[in-house]
Design a protein that fits this description.
disordered N terminus, AChE-related_enzymes, alpha/beta, Rossmann fold, 11-stranded mixed β-sheet, carboxylic ester hydrolase activity, 3-stranded mixed β-sheet, 16 helices
Length: about 575
């Protein structure tokens, strides 16, 4: 069935995102060499890791940079859909291995194979550390998990050198790649051990284990690791908080969740249709066991598998347009993720660490098609959360249209069609904003003193013109600096009228990363960031960032009620429960 015009906005958006990823992947090495030179007279920094020695660069701002460090063996051939294995010892006898260029990122959904800058061999990490750091420095470690909806890597190779410098050379920054799409989240294979599930999440845990073993060689403290995720990266952080039933494996000691992403995350048994489709389209269907089918898939050409990965289909019983925004996601596998996220948080089955969370005011705008009718609204939710009944989607629509929805100002950009703002608000709250509220409320049962939340409401003229409001991850420019985001450097406002936001936001972030308390890094002009739980045990306090200033706010009753409504669906039919 052809996609109607009113849904083409979503596909144009996704195509644009993937096109940008492809373009910038080819420019990574060039931009790195042009913008980050080092003095020829200085010997390169050397990191002697347990399996090999690597040489990096000392940048002009006195930051050591190591790019493309393997944290696992390549996940190819027999290692496809298996947990990452530690790197093999180097057989090189010619001295340290150069670590001066970014390696390819993991293959994402929506790109052809081959694509420059993307590869199945992709499990690499990047490190930025003070040039004077030694193994005795034991600096706080800031591990960043990028997003991309579990279908692509959208925040790849963000540069951490400016953050290290502006922290007073007081942190070590790590970012890395992990498997996504079909390569990281194929599920439904019977669970007989031949097909490991959620290997994208297992890659992340493999990286955290690598940090425990190796980070001291860069000046980091393995006993002071803050895990920070953005979007699907923040959703990943949530998964690690509840992984293995909340067992604390000592991999991290604080967590930052920036725009937490909660899509449908079904039980593995509900995904047999997805696995069958992959088998049929690769010609691997017909074996007498999952072992034989997986052997076939592991020997299938990368190009064939990538074509299958790109061919998303509706969930069973759903209409063609619009397809799910995010097709490949983590599943409840009964081991790493033992039950639905909300249920585990409700039961207190999570690692107990200080936590900071934040969302933008208009999280849903960049994901929302230009719809014009109520029917398109309900179809969108039905196709993205397939267990919702017709009565559920009708109830959602009622919640987000007058007279029930009276929030001022009502988000209805003048250059967008009817129902765009309604859907953007509803999707943003269902999938990002309310998961933050609901998870924080569950966490506050056992943690009343080290939970902080914020709302980012910093406007930009370009975003306003495009009808985006304050969109998803708009705070990233303030956290990392506008010149550090590669393809995400979309505006000049952080260099002009929003420039002062950078140090305001970073102050709180540095405080949390260094001391597990954002207030210990705040600028003297900024207010004290009060915790989510107030002195009278009430929840819902968050810091509000705006261009004009920063202040505390309390969730309005209407928003509390809407988040309670989503919690009711999430614990039942949205597969977030």
């Amino acid at each position: 069935m052809p996609i109607p015009c009113h849904f083409q906005h979503l596909w144009l958006y996704q195509s644009a995102v993937y096109s940008v990823i492809m373009i910038f992947a080819t420019l990574l090495i060039i931009s790195s060499l042009l913008s980050q030179t080092t003095s020829a007279s200085s010997p390169p920094p050397i990191a002697n890791l347990t399996y090999a020695a690597f040489s990096g660069l000392t940048l002009p701002n006195s930051v050591n940079q190591f790019l493309g460090l393997p944290y696992a063996q390549p996940p190819i051939g027999p290692f496809r859909w298996r947990s990452p294995s530690p790197p093999l010892p180097s057989s090189s006898g010619s001295g340290p291995i150069p670590a001066t260029e970014f390696k390819p990122i993991c293959l994402g959904t929506g790109v052809a194979y081959p694509t420059p800058g993307q590869s199945e061999d992709c499990l690499y990490a990047n490190i930025w550390a003070p040039a004077n750091a030694t193994s005795e420095s034991r600096l706080p470690v800031w591990v960043f998990i990028q997003g991309g909806g579990y279908n692509a890597l959208s925040n790849y190779n963000w540069n951490g050198s400016e953050v290290v410098e502006r922290s007073g050379y007081g942190v070590v920054v790590v970012n890395f790649n992990y498997r996504v799409g079909l390569w990281g989240f194929l599920a439904g294979g019977g669970g007989d051990g031949e097909m490991e599930l959620n290997v994208g999440l297992r890659d992340q845990r493999g990286l955290l284990g690598w940090v425990q073993r190796e980070i001291v060689q860069f000046g980091g403290d393995p006993e002071h690791v803050v895990m920070h995720g953005a979007s699907a990266g923040a959703g990943s952080v949530a998964m690690h908080l509840i992984a293995n039933g909340g067992r604390d494996d000592g991999l991290f000691h604080g967590a930052i969740l920036e725009s937490i992403f909660f899509p449908a995350q079904p039980f593995v048994g509900e995904l047999g249709w997805q696995f069958e489709r992959v088998l049929n389209q690769t010609g691997c269907k017909g074996g007498n066991s999952t072992e034989g089918e997986m052997d076939c898939l592991r020997n299938t050409d990368v190009k064939v598998l990538q074509e299958v990965a790109n061919h998303a289909q509706p969930f069973p019983g759903k209409a063609d347009p619009p397809l799910p925004v995010f097709y490949w996601t983590p599943c409840v596998d009964g081991e790493l993720i033992q039950d639905f996220p909300y249920k585990l948080f409700k039961q207190g089955k999570n690692v107990k660490v200080p936590i900071m969370m934040g969302t933008a005011s208009n999280e849903g705008t960049v994901f929302t098609p230009n719809i014009t009718t109520p029917q398109q609204f309900t179809t969108f939710f039905s196709n993205n959360y397939p267990l919702l009944a017709a009565t559920d989607t009708t109830s959602v629509l009622s919640r987000y249209t007058p007279p029930n929805f009276n929030t001022t100002p009502y988000f209805n950009p003048p250059n967008r069609p009817p129902f765009y703002g309604v859907l953007a608000t509803a999707y943003g709250e269902s999938t990002f904003i309310c998961p933050q509220t609901n998870v924080l409320n569950y966490l506050s049962v056992d943690n009343t003193s080290s939970l902080w939340a914020y709302r980012y409401n910093v406007h930009d003229d370009e975003n306003t013109r495009d009808g985006l409001g304050v969109p998803h991850l708009w705070d990233a420019g303030a956290i990392w600096g506008p010149g550090s985001l590669n393809s995400w450097d979309r505006t000049g406002s952080y260099r002009t009228y929003n420039k002062e936001l950078i140090e305001r936001v970073r102050g709180y972030y540095f405080g949390f990363v260094k001391y597990f308390d954002p207030n210990r890094g705040r600028l003297g002009t900024e207010p004290e960031w009060e915790g989510w739980v107030g002195g009278n045990e009430t929840t819902g306090r968050r810091l509000l960032f705006e261009t004009e200033g920063t202040r505390m706010e309390v969730l309005e009753q209407e928003e509390r009620e809407r988040c309670g409504f989503w919690l009711g669906l999430g614990e039942g039919r949205m597969e977030q429960r």
